[in-house]
C-alpha cells in the first residue's frame, strides 16, 4: 500500500496513477476537495482520498488513523506535498518564510515521523526535492533553502531507519510542466512562456512531464532500487550537468 501526499495534481497525481496502474492501493491527500474527488475517481478502486494539509498535525493524525484502519501498513510513502513562491531577499516576509517552511520542511518531517509505526519492513520513503536547492535561482531563496533541508533529511533518515530495512531517498525534479510551475508566472498569459524559457535552458531543450518523474519515483519505490538509500535521483533534463 502506498501514500502520496499532495497527490491531486502534477507530479503527485501522475505518481499516484502510476502506482495504481502497477497494482498498488494508493492513499492520496490534497487540500482541495474537488481535485481530490477527481483524482480518486481516476484511480478507481485502487485509490482513496483524504483531505489533509500536511502542515496540520491534526490532519496528519486523521490521515494515518484511516490508513491504520486498513490493517496493512505502508510499503511506500511519497512525501510530495509542497510549494513555494518568488520573493527576493529584500522582499521576504516572516509570513512568506513560515508558510514555505511549514509546508515543505515541517510538513515533510511530520508526514514521515507520524508514518513510522505504519512503515512495513523494507518500505521505501521518497522525499520531494528540487534542483532549486543547488541552483541559486534569484528570488527563490526561501524555497531553495527548504528543499536543501529535504536533501539533509533523506541522508539522515536513511541512516536512522536502515536497521528496519526502510530506504529513504529524494527525487529531484528540474523544471516540470505542472500547475505549480505555471503558477509561478505573474499571470496565465505568461505561463507558457515561463515553461518554455525554463525548458529551453536545459540540455534536453524542453521541460519535463509529470509522468517522467513518476517513472523515477516508481523506481525508488520498487525492489529494483533495493541497494539505493540516502541518495538523490535527478530528473532534470540534464540541468545538474551544466
Taken from the alpha-carbon principal axes, the silhouette is globular
Query: H/E series, N to C?
Result: EHEHEHEHEHHEHHHE
CATH fold name: Rossmann fold
| Number of E-state strands | 7
Mean pLDDT across every amino acid position: 96
At the fourth CATH level, what is the homologous superfamily? NAD(P)-binding Rossmann-like Domain
Give an overview in words.
The chain has 242 residues and is of the alpha/beta class. It has nine helices and seven strands. Strand 1, helix 1 and strand 2 form a beta-alpha-beta unit. Helix 1 packs across helix 9, helix 3 runs parallel beside helix 4 and helix 4 runs parallel beside helix 6. It is globular, with a radius of gyration of 17 Å. The protein starts with a strand and ends in a 7-residue tail after the last strand. The model has no long low-confidence stretch (mean pLDDT 96).
Quick structural gist:
44% of the residues lie in helices and 17% in strands. It has helices at 10-21, 33-43, 57-68, 94-115, 132-135, 141-160, 179-182, 191-200, 210-221, and strands at 2-4, 26-30, 47-51, 74-79, 119-128, 167-173, 232-235. A seven-stranded parallel beta sheet has the order 3-2-1-4-5-6-7, with helices on both faces.
Keywords summarizing the entry:
alpha/beta, Rossmann fold, globular, 17% strand, 242 residues
Amino acid at each position: 500500500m502506498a501514500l502520496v501526499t499532495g497527490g491531486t495534481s502534477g507530479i503527485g497525481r501522475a505518481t499516484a496513477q502510476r502506482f495504481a496502474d502497477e497494482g498498488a492501493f494508493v492513499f492520496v491527500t490534497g487540500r482541495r476537495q474537488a481535485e481530490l474527488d477527481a483524482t480518486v475517481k481516476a484511480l478507481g478502486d485502487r485509490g482513496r482520498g483524504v483531505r489533509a494539509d500536511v502542515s496540520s498535525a491534526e490532519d496528519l493524525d486523521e490521515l494515518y488513523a484511516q490508513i491504520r484502519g486498513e490493517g496493512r501498513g505502508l510499503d511506500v510513502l511519497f512525501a510530495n506535498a509542497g510549494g513555494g513562491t518568488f520573493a527576493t531577499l529584500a522582499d521576504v516576509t516572516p509570513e512568506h518564510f513560515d508558510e514555505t517552511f511549514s509546508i515543505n520542511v515541517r510538513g515533510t518531517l511530520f508526514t514521515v515521523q507520524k508514518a513510522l509505526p505504519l512503515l512495513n519492513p523494507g518500505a521505501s520513503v521518497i522525499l520531494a526535492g528540487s534542483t532549486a536547492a543547488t541552483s541559486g535561482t534569484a528570488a527563490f531563496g526561501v524555497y531553495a533553502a527548504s528543499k536543501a533541508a529535504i536533501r539533509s533529511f533523506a541522508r539522515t533518515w536513511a541512516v536512522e531507519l536502515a536497521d528496519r530495512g526502510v530506504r529513504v531517498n529524494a527525487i529531484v525534479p528540474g523544471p516540470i510542466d505542472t500547475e505549480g510551475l505555471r503558477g509561478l508566472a505573474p499571470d496565465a498569459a505568461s505561463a507558457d512562456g515561463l515553461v518554455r524559457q525554463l525548458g529551453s535552458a536545459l540540455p534536453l531543450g524542453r521541460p519535463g512531464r509529470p509522468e517522467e518523474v513518476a517513472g523515477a519515483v516508481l523506481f525508488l519505490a520498487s525492489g529494483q532500487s533495493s541497494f539505493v538509500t540516502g541518495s538523490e535521483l535527478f530528473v532534470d533534463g540534464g540541468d545538474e550537468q551544466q
